[in-house]
Amino acid sequence: MNYAHRSVGAVIAMASLVGVAAHAKGVGAKEEGYGTAAVETLEADAGDAIVVTAQRRVQKLQDVGIAVSAFSGEQLRTRQISSSIDVARMTPGVFASSSNGGQTASISIRGVTQNDSSDAVEGPVAVYVDETYVPSLQGQGFGLFDIERVEALKGPQGTLFGRNATGGLVNFVIAKPSDTVTGYANGSYGSFDSVKLEGAIGGPIAETVQGRISLLYNRNNGWLKNLYPGKPDVGGEDTLGGRAQLQWQATDALKVRATASAVRSDLSTGAYNSISTQPVFDGQGRVVGADRVSGPTALGFTPLPGSRLEVNHDFACSDCGRTRLYDAALHVDYDAGGAQISAITNWKRITKALLIDVDSSPVNLVDVGQNAQTESFSQELRATGKADRAVWNLGVYYLQIHTLAQMGFLARPNGILAGALGVSGTGADLANLQDLWTRSFSGFGQIEYKLAPRLSGTIGLRVIHEWQRYDFQSSQFQNQNDYKLDTAIAVATLQPSYANKRSDSFWAGKAALEYHANRDMLLYASINRGAKGGNYNSKLPDGSPPLSPDEFAYKGETLLAYEGGMKSTWLDGKATFNLLGFIYDYSNYQAFTFSNASGFVQNRDANLYGGEAEFTLRPVEGLELSGGLSLLHAKVKNVQVATGVYKDVRPTFAPKRQANGRISYRPPLEVAGGHINLAVDGYSTSSFYQNIRNFAAHKISGHTIFGAQVGWESASGFSLTGAVSNLFDKRYEITGFDLSTLCGCSEVAYGKPRWWTISAGFRF
């Protein structure tokens, strides 16, 4: 690990040298707040600076000694960011893969990810919406509407944000009611008959009561033409969502806000294509590799070229990916003078029904179905305050999650699997039933103390106790609907049932130093410990993977992160430059290993290190340049890639290099009572693996994508915008599944093609 320690040391040394070289300025007090009106006050004082709540209090982005990237709602709008997944291409070190028609997402930060497709699994990168935790992976991909700000926090954040923030978190802050009437309406039309309507209105209802209503409608036709006769195109979407908020300012010190939201999303069959792949066997008949090959698959189907927007799926429907999200929350904030006390109560329900053509071909081999319902309840009580030279946070948190998940195979009539089961005429469904209860209770505290006028230290701790109960059954069921995983009438038991109860205690912590070399230069160094609880493997109905009962439950993981960096502001606020380095020492990394048509998690140790840089520059009025770069070295040790075969591998969705950039310009000319806005942006990633076994067929090539926007906005709030994403119509893969031993093929999913939109809007 000496090389990694030297990396962070070099970053800190560089930051120190830059600080010494900087022109001397006085050290002003850090602007921050924790009271009821702190956000509005600090935003008014900050000008163009972005305000964040990454440490559970309001601070300017450049005053936070954490690796955090933040984007205002206005920045999201001008950059045409419409989904939670799109945020990844704006942020170095954050990576996302979306598949299954787009309704599931795997978010990776600095190589920390979990791409297990089980609906009972939580990821190591937490997602928060309006200060509430999203407890399932299928709920992490959603449309963005009426968003005030997005914050991407990198590195363990468990001290203040709790469980499963091992790799970091993405925090979506919604626009809230105010005592003035505000709102917007926006409509757009674009490629593949895409239509998006979005709007919100809020303001006073009575003297002490405010409200806000937000709506979203988003749909598009399939963008992959399905050549199979009578079957719909794939890649389509139809989403409708809404949010209502009611806020009561009971007194000057007490504010109560209730929220409720619902989203209905219907997506087509997963936008996968098939490619020919061939397994590689060693002398003992073990699969130790997989290669991409030309020619037909083992099913006799010759895959279509990836350059064409065409597929040939015999199993397809326009609503094969159905998701329903329901949410209700109560936020109570009380300003006690010396402390801000907050209580947040939240209930969520996420339901999902998903169907996938396993071989993504015209052959009726086998299909996969998933049904799931995840219901959660959480209660948080915390206090934040400031006394003399200290800023402190204290709190307790309770979370309960109940997941009912069904996953299995659809053996449709007259198909290969149905014939093998002897039910060719009727078909059958083979399904696993999982029932998982998780209860978690934690207490946390953090204090930041000013050790000297320019130096402060932070120490924090969260202690977590978790209970789990898991039940597993596997049966063959009577087929009642070819386009549904049926689990009503069981006809045979496929595997022995399994039940388990367990509890565990673990902790997360933080120790950090911040040094303000001057008012425009922050140097920081930290040690963070992140922790994520364990979960359960399960076999598919065919008995794969070959796990013994003691391999069903797997352990929690622990990440010890060392980080150092600087944040600097130059040219009287016209430029910022941030630089950092980090080292990760991972124990029991939860490595998901996909093989054939199933997978399992194995605990292994891992080491990662890297660096990141971000800058913004506004050299003249109206012109802004921004960009970022991340470099990552990552290794998971001694991973079992075949029975008795172990090797060091790179984690999934962890490219060695990512870069993003943007140039925007507002000419100093008035046009029709408004101003023109011009922008181009780009995102680039090096190659990465979609499977932790790191076979040749698992490697996805790097790609570079550009976009462009031109808009007009009047002083009265009217706007017109034209935008193109994937400007040069690049074909690039985003994820895949290796099925070499099943069909001599693999599934790959592609990013969207060139996509233009024209939109009109009004803000008030």
TrEMBL record:
GO biological process, one term: iron ion transport
Primary residence: membrane
Chaperone listed as a keyword: no
Alphabetic keyword roster: Cell outer membrane, Ion transport, Iron, Iron transport, Membrane, Receptor, Signal, TonB box, Transmembrane, Transmembrane beta strand, Transport
TonB C-terminal box, short sequence motif: residues: 747-764
Membrane topology term: Multi-pass membrane protein
Domain (TonB-dependent receptor plug) ranges: 61-168
Compartments, as annotated in UniProt: Cell outer membrane
Domain TonB-dependent receptor-like beta-barrel: 323-727
A Pfam family the protein falls into: TonB_dep_Rec_b-barrel
Cellular component annotations (GO), alphabetically ordered: cell outer membrane
Source superkingdom: Bacteria
Signal peptide (UniProt feature, chain positions): 1-24
Family label: Belongs to the TonB-dependent receptor family.
Protein name in UniProt: TonB-dependent receptor
